[in-house]
Amino acid sequence: MSSPQLLSAHAGHWTGSGTGVTVIVPPPGTVGSGEVRGGAPASREFALLEPYRLVDRVDAVVLSGGSAFGLAAGDGVVGGLRALGRGFATPLGPVPIVVGMSIFDRSVAADPPSASSGALAFEAALRGVPFTTGAVGAGAGATTGKWRSRLDPGGLGIAYGSAGPASVCAVVVVNAWGDVLAPDGSPLFAGTSALPSERGAGFNTTIGVLLTDAALAKNDCFLLAQSGHTGFARALHPAHSRYDGDAVVALATGEVDGADLDLIRAAAADTMAAAIRNAVFRA
User: Fold this and answer.
1) Where are the alpha helices (DSSP H) in the chain?
2) What is the dihedral of CA 75, 78, 84, 90, to 10 degrees?
3) Calpha distance 171→22 (Å, rounded)
4) pLDDT, tens only, 36-93
5) What architecture is domain 2-280?
6) Could you tell me the residue ranges of all domains in the chain?
7) Contact by Cβ (8 Å): 68, 83
8) CB 123, CB 80: distance < 8 Å
9) CA 10 to chain centre
């Protein structure tokens, strides 16, 4: 299923056998922050996103399968950005700021995404290849409901919202330990009679990116990322377990001045919840 452009960002996939990579490349000057709430994250450069760190700009976000192995996909994106001259200015040239988040899928045992996989997803983003959702890119090997000893559908979803003059977009890879919930709070797949039976430790994580065209500071983006986690809690149960690496990055591209941060945060929570549900709906 194809989706519209992610505001002013570019996005692309590489899809392998039961795993993949999704790259989001925002415009130069995009401000970013993020927050991890799950107990078992696989991430790259996340410490730089903390509000009190020096760097406030993000050049790309890489979502991947393969757990810690899949973080290598970020190397291919760093190389592509370096060739374009993008990155944090240093006396020895620009250093691209590429944030990575990975889910645990079956490629951990065989052929996880690599730097070349990341480079291919980056090239797809720059070429404007139609951005699709479902079991593609980083969502190719995603499943849900593992706390019930089930492998219910997971995948990559996208949703859009608005807050006055500002727009919000959520992109999420849903590989949760728990269930995806309908708006009324009922599990979409397990049914109300199914009881949890297994921990499913080590095979889970939901990772997401929130984009807005509002002009926000880094600390504002940190608060926006927190609202993304509110969306997790609305559409996943349980969310943020010790067995998940749940994480959200928030990016502000800055085209719209004067937008209300709290309205954007409210819209972001709703938009992230919608994206999670969209990830498992199959068109």
Assistant:
1) 67-70, 73-83, 115-127, 218-235, 261-280
2) -140
3) 10
4) 999 999 999 999 999 999 999 999 999 999 999 999 999 999 999 999 999 999 999 9
5) 4-Layer Sandwich (3.60)
6) 2-280
7) no
8) yes
9) 14
